[in-house]
Write a structure and sequence with these properties.
The chain is built from twelve helices and 13 strands. The chain is α/β, with parallel strands linked by helices. The two termini are 39 Å apart. The relative contact order is 0.16. It binds pyridoxal-5'-phosphate.
């Protein structure tokens, strides 16, 4: 039985080289990094080395990194931490319509609770945020802009550096340190440049589970001078910003994964882009299909296609039976049958949003896998369409 894993945007397998680096920290080097004895110091050394190495990769300082439990916590720490620190009467936040729920759910919750005023920028049909729209939305009360680096569903890469420059200009002309700029880089961390100086970001989120590192570990970059409050209180680890005993193997693994990804990304991106484009072209030969996201400003491993007249969940199950693992919408949203907020945000109607499938390639993807997928998917779609009572018009895709 074949098993072709094309859901690397949901999570990636742990790289064996990363596992090797982590292994001693589960058993031999088990101390608490806060302990003063040799066992504690050995663990602390592992955490310190990881912090230093990641900081170098991001062109940041070691004291600007806060390790935590993953992308969700990092996003929450950035946003809640900043909103709660700020004592202004009116706090305005700007985000986009296609953010991960870790950002969007929190911000809409804060808006409903009356803690912030929120502007949600729409995106164009490719999923791009317009820098001029961002500039127009800026207000003297804007304390934070949170826009993701690359989208987890449609793979669109946002012009983060351009936005960063626009925000710097605004701060300068208005003589204020605000708004701060946060980006969720969970999907970008394994394949794009993470230089925080070039990106002009003040807060950056990434995690291990999308970059062939361990799950349950992430970090928040907090630029020196940016004041945020903790959201978890306790023993004062991570300079008081994230209490709780450090996930030492996880932190060591996160650093190892990031080192490997950043060193190998150029070569791997070229390889994946070729496979991605072949899969896209092949799938678009099936009638009544449309590529979602941008053709080129796109993650090298992401293919997201709407198949009209097809129920996405049914397609995932049929493909699963053939040993092909993909997803509909995002894994985080699955379990619910609501159509993806991202697909709706790029202007597709409800019916078309239901039939969108995401194939995300990875290190294990080989050319033969793409051939197999291109052999199987047309048959599955023909079968599902034959069974489908709906028959939508192509005008939905115009
Ligand atoms: C996966 C993901 C998250 C959540 O990360 P966890 O480590 O699962 O909490 C947040 N943002 C984006 C863009 C993601 O892809």
């Amino acid at each position: 039985m074949k098993s072709i894993y094309l859901d690397n945007a949901a999570t990636t397998p742990l790289d064996s080289r990363v596992l090797e680096k982590m292994q001693p920290y589960f058993s031999d080097v088990f101390g608490n990094p806060s302990s003063f004895h040799a066992a504690g110091l050995a663990a602390k050394k592992g955490v310190d080395a990881a912090r230093k190495s990641i900081a170098a990769l991001m062109n940041a300082h070691a004291d600007e990194l806060v390790f935590c439990s993953g992308g969700t916590e990092s996003d929450n720490l950035a946003i809640l931490g900043l909103v709660r620190t700020n004592k202004a009467k009116v706090k305005h936040v700007i985000t986009s319509a296609i953010e991960h729920p870790a950002v969007l759910e929190l911000l809409t919750h804060l808006q409903k609770a009356g803690e912030i005023e929120l502007t949600i920028l729409s995106v164009d049909k490719f999923g791009l945020v317009d820098v001029r729209e961002l500039e127009k939305a800026l207000r003297p009360e804007t304390i934070l802009v949170s826009i993701m680096y690359a989208n987890n569903e449609i793979g669109t890469i946002e012009p983060i550096a351009d936005m960063g420059r626009a925000l710097l200009k605004w701060r300068k002309t208005h003589n204020t340190p605000f708004p701060y700029f946060h980006t969720d880089a969970c999907q970008a961390a394994g394949v794009l440049d993470l230089d925080v100086e070039k990106l002009h970001v003040d807060l950056l989120t990434l995690n291990g589970s999308k970059i062939y590192g361990p799950k349950g570990v992430g970090l928040l970059f907090v630029r020196r001078g940016v004041e945020i409050e903790p959201i978890i209180y306790g023993g004062g680890q991570e300079r008081g910003l994230r209490s709780g005993t450090e996930n030492v193997p996880g932190i060591v693994g996160l650093a190892a994964a990031l080192e490997i990804a950043q060193a190998e990304k150029e070569k791997e991106n070229v390889r994946l882009t070729k496979l991605r484009d072949k899969l896209t072209a092949g799938l678009l030969k099936i009638k009544k299909t449309k590529l979602n996201g941008h053709a080129t400003e796109r993650l090298p491993n992401n293919v997201n296609i709407s198949f009209l007249d097809v129920e996405g969940e049914a397609a995932v199950l049929y493909l699963d039976a053939q040993g092909i693992y993909c997803s509909t919408g995002s894994a985080c949203a699955s379990g619910s049958l609501d159509p993806s907020h991202v697909i709706l945000a790029i202007g597709l109607p409800y019916e078309a949003a239901h039939g969108s499938l995401r194939f995300t390639l990875g290190h294990s993807t080989k050319p033969a896998d793409i051939d197999y997928v291109l052999k199987v998917v047309p048959d599955v779609m023909a079968k599902l369409r034959h069974m489908s009572p709906v028959n939508l018009d192509m005008k939905y895709f115009k």
